From TrEMBL:
Residues in Periplasmic binding protein domain copies: 39-324
PANTHER family: D-XYLOSE-BINDING PERIPLASMIC PROTEIN
Domain of life: Bacteria
Protein keywords: Signal, Sugar transport, Transport
Signal sequence annotation: 1-21
Protein's name according to its UniProt entry: Multiple sugar transport system substrate-binding protein
PROSITE patterns the record matches: PROKAR_LIPOPROTEIN
Amino acid sequence: MRKSLKSVLFLMMLVVFALVAAGCNSDASGGGSSSAVDVGIVLPTKDEPRWVQDEQRFKDALADSDYSTEILFSQGSSAKEKENVDALLNKGIKVLIITPHDGPAAAAAVEAAKAEDVTIIAYDRLITDTDAVDYYVTFDSLAVGAAQAQYLVDNAEGTDIPLYLYAGASSDNNAFLFFQGAWEVLQPKIADGTFKVANSSEAEALKDTKDLSREQLSQIIGQVTTNWDPNESKNKAQTHLTSVGDDMKGDVAVLAPNDGTARSIADVFASDGAVSSYLITGQDAEKASIQYIIDEKQSMTVFKDVRSLVTDAMGMAVEVLDGNTPETTGTYDNGSVEVEAKQTPVIVVDQENVKAELIDSEYYEASEFTGLE
Ligand code: BGC
């Protein structure tokens, strides 16, 4: 009898301990110590500065929020992404803000959330082939690609200029938009002999077609994808430069899809003795690329002010939580439905305006760079 009373007491203590421990673990980054989370945020990977920056900008914006939030990273894995969404659903989220690692693969995760009446906001990358997406906050991705291409057109001199094309991951809908935007500007200049494509037989075969179908875009992207991976970019660039003759070197132009891949590709082109100069694009205004631009190792970047995207996403989430309908500016076709979207413009940055756009706007501090005039 005494013994069983002791074990009952012991069990009760265990239960109390477990409850206290559970309460401690569920502390959300933007809220108090309750286990409920209002807004779940899932970002694709910590391995790229772009997304670490989004995390920081979310934290800055959430400091004074009344709603509790939690940010999780998927580390480039759709399985981890689904686990993250499930974990947030268990915490009772009402709104999910998510940048999919892989656009179509994320459908299962958001469908699970939708089944629990959660409002889904796709953040920067669209989730495709599902009707379980309510809103999309994004930059103007066609304009990103067009700005990159226009920079090459405006700054390349002469004709018959070797053009190296690189693209993002084909699992990312944005990679299609960036490339499409770029192609619409580059294609007439390939057709008229200003540029000659150096590294893609698929692009070469389509050089008279301005409006590419998704399938045609896929063919080119499949050949010149970087998978958003700096190492893959480096290897591809090395292979390309090894397999061309000197007629594809000299003064060249390179369409690189973002800053992480641009720096890798630029290093390869810089170390080839037969390349006398290269123009190379980028996007994201990553700090390392701003330094590359100051040092004349990267020609430009497309600045996407993440503060605006975070403000739009959280603004939408709060509208939903308050029972209102968020404002949108257009729609995006995700292959299944027209998703209501809010779009933010982008800014081209090169040596000329880097200080005005990034330092004077207080996006970065001058002390983070060297050689800035
Ligand atoms: C984003 C870019 C980013 C890339 C790689 C794209 O979806 O729009 O800003 O550089 O993914 O992460």
